[in-house]
Design brief:
The complex is a heterodimer of chains A (340) and B (612). Chain A is built from 13 helices and twelve strands. With 340 residues, chain A is α/β, with parallel strands linked by helices. Chain A has two domains: 6-235 and 281-331, Thiamin diphosphate (ThDP)-binding fold, Pyr/PP domains (Rossmann fold); 240-274, no CATH class. In chain A, the strands form two sheets. In chain A, strands 2-1-3-4-6-5-11-7 form an eight-stranded mixed β-sheet, sandwiched between helices. In chain A, helix 3 (66-69) links the parallel strand 1 (54-58) and strand 2. Chain A starts with a helix and ends with a strand. The model of chain A is unreliable at 5-10 (pLDDT under 50). In chain B, the strands form five sheets. Chain B has a seven-stranded mixed β-sheet with strand order 11-10-12-13-15-14-21, with helices on both faces. Chain B is built from 20 helices and 23 strands. The relative contact order of chain B is 0.09. The longest helix of chain B is centred in the middle third of the chain and has 20 residues, at 195-214. Chain B is globular and about 90 Å long. The chains are: A alpha/beta (340), B alpha/beta (612). Strand 12 (336-339) of chain A pairs antiparallel with strand 9 (233-239) of chain B. Bound molecules: iron/sulfur cluster. Residues 27-28, 31, 33, 62, 132, 136, 211-214 of chain A line the site of iron/sulfur cluster.
Amino acid sequence: MTHLGAEASAAVTLSKADFQSDQETRWCPGCGDYAVLSAVQQFMPELDIPPERIVFVTGIGCAGRFSYYMNTYGMHGIHGRGPALATGLATAREDLSIWVVTGDGDSLSIGGNHLIHALRRNVPLKILLMNNQIYGLTKGQASPTSELGKITKSTPFGVSDHPFNPVALALGAEATFVARTIDRDRHHLTEVLRAASRHQGAALVEIYQNCPVFNDGAFAALTEKDVKDANQIRLEPGQPIRFGIDGERGIARGGDGGLEIVDVASAGVQSLLVHDPRRTDAGVAFSLARLAEDPTAPTPIGIFRDVQRPVYGRTANASAPVSDEQLSELLLSGDTWTVA
Amino acid sequence: MTKAVEDRERVIIRFAGDSGDGMQLAGSRFTDATAATGNDLATLPNFPAEIRAPAGTLAGVSAFQIHFASRDILTPGDAPNVLVAMNPAALKANLPELERGATIIVNEDAFTKRNLEKAGYDGNPLEDGSLSAHRVHRIPMTTLTVRAVEGIEGVTTRDAGRAKNLFALGVLSWLYGRPTEITKQWIARKFSRKPGIAQANLNAFNAGWSFGETTELLDVQYRVKPAKDVPPGVYRNVNGTTALTLGLIAASVRSGLPLVLASYPITPASEILHELSRHARFGVSTIQAEDEIAAAGMALGAAFGGRLGVTATSGPGMDLKAETIGLAVALELPMVIIDVQRAGPSTGMPTKTEQSDLLMALYGRHGESPLPVIAPSTAGGCFDAGFEAARIAIDYRTPVILLSDSFLASSSEPWLVPDVADLPQIDPRFAEAADPDRAFLPYSRDERLARPWAIPGTPGLQHRIGGLEKSDGTGNISYDGANHARMTRLRADKVAGIARDLPLLAVDAEPGARVLVLGWGSSEGAIRAGVRRARLAGHKVACAHLHHLNPLPSNTGDVLRSFDRVLVAEMNTGQLAQVLRARFLVDVESFCKLEGQPLFGAEIEREIAARQ
Ligand code: SF4
């Protein structure tokens, strides 16, 4: 974000409080959204951008309330349209740092089209996708990330349609930055925010967000003390991918060209895949994204992909103000004739 | 040989052929030459809906009509005096609309057995006497064109055949004494990279002209003198699309707000996207959005950022944009939504005109969501409407719907180019950096009931807006009933108050007139033409035209009540009539046209006569 931060560096140092609005937060007690909000507010001063140059755009859903709680400029839009509103804003104003906060219903169901096109265009937006695998605000229907068989208000006999994998979807949509993190892991979440903010272009950050009211414990395998080490596959750039107690398991290329989980002791460290989010080809990232069917088994978190591609809108020349003379010339262009 | 020259006050010519015959090109070249002559004119293209309709069939007929005169004219004309028919299908499709005794010029070469069959003719109309009410000139245009371009290097027989539209243009240019230089220059420019093709087209054009001059088939040349009752100034020929885009750019320049247009391709509105995308130099950004919903959202997002946000579409796209327009009503941000109306419902007739989106524009959103609606009435008037839509949007912080239609978008007329200095300045009145001791109130209001427009980047004015109901003043979320009632009324009063800025509804009345003909949008020319003819026939009649549909000019009710009978003419089933009846309790009568064609002066004249 260097192009944005430069002017601000002379200004006073900002703190978390500068990013807290006076609005009372209205999520349910224990909602994962609180942790994400707090982490984002805490992280914002690092951007070195004054709050008035930051905009939060949201859609509808519990995550949609996010914009009201940030003491920045904010727009709470309509269901699924956050990326479209933000694309218009980004086209108009290259001097802003624009963040979109959305949910799994908002961005993967009703707003799916806008999400994939914002990613494909590489619009400079940081998109935080709070995935709780349920509809919260409308009180508990299945979402496009709800796992097969899940009993919800709208699926009394269990979800029968196959869920989306948001990271795989974003990679398929030609996203240049794709990451996954967890609401409860402040440190990891902040690391990912930092990387996303440094990325030039669109960044999609999937955040596993617990909804204690309608889908409690959906990510327990990745958050509970006794099991999380066995299930969190932390992707570290330049490092062989290992996980489990003392890293006894790892990811290696399988015989069929795909990825597989191996025992490091028997397979050997050299056989492990070294993580490289800058790989031009998104194939390995895609295989990593699809390693776990759902987050109840070993699941990769971290940055899957971080590559450069021309940023939307930055190729157009910013034009100087148009004078009345130039306007007059335009109006008189083409064949004209004079009536005396 | 010198031929007789006869004067004509006005002429309506229709060029018709297969969509591959280049009739739009011939028509628009004839138009440019006519504009240069100083005639007043109006044109109307008519395309087939299918891009590649089978050649030679009725579905594939493409036509271009021009009406030009030595006095001011109001419409592209009802019944053509001259038809150029490049094949049997073009003859068959257009014959019913010709005036009695019209001149028909046919490409005789195209009247083969096979083409006649494709057009559904049993026999040959050129032979069987069925055209006896008209004057028919049979010209072997293909043969003469091929002969004229023989021997030009790099030109195939196929290319030669293609140039026959220029031959036809040459004949017509001679017949009406159009200047040739402007057409020749155009040919040279257009085909500058293909000298062979340029030569072929030039030869074909010259051959057509000489044919007119020498053949005994055509014995008179007609002259239409320059129009004299035209206000002085610099003119250019524009269609509604061009004028509208220029009006938007002018508003952008005069407000200092760069223009952001987001659109999704749709007939007939795509032309706006095409035209504006060429004007980056004027600070215009265009986005081809992923869908109609996104296009509206992007325009609104740009508006939040302090830009002139515009989206353009047609009926089906309006359906999809409704939710975003409602958000714009709640956010109270400026935004312009252009609806180039076409015949519906659903996909309807995409290339045919209609005025059937009025009620949708006024009421087609959930909740109480009033917004201004304006409608240009002429091609040139689209400039003013584009400018005015932006001005109202910015002054009042509101989305504005501009209702154009397919006819306005594609018809053209000479346009008196305005002096830039005469265009009003539009002041965006952005909220300034805050007084640190006073809380910023994003939903406070000025004397127009407009709220402050505080754009991101302004220190100290950080605020959050959204679709949830807001507390009067602070803009904080509020579910309080009394507040909601107040906000609903404030939003409505703000829009109603725009009437204070609007000119009164002007009535063109003769003393003693008891019937008023009222219209809106693109029918103005037809209504005025019909009224003019009715007056010539001795009828006493008044007419008026609405350019603002919401709010209505403040004297509208008084005007309606001052006539015994009010006839509302519109291309729908009576949508404006319904609004006026509900609003003013006046028993207005409707004349409705739903054929996908503009209203004709003759129809209005007939309706007036029936009410005397
Ligand atoms: S419903 Fe779930 S996601 Fe929504 S606020 Fe409550 S806990 Fe959070």
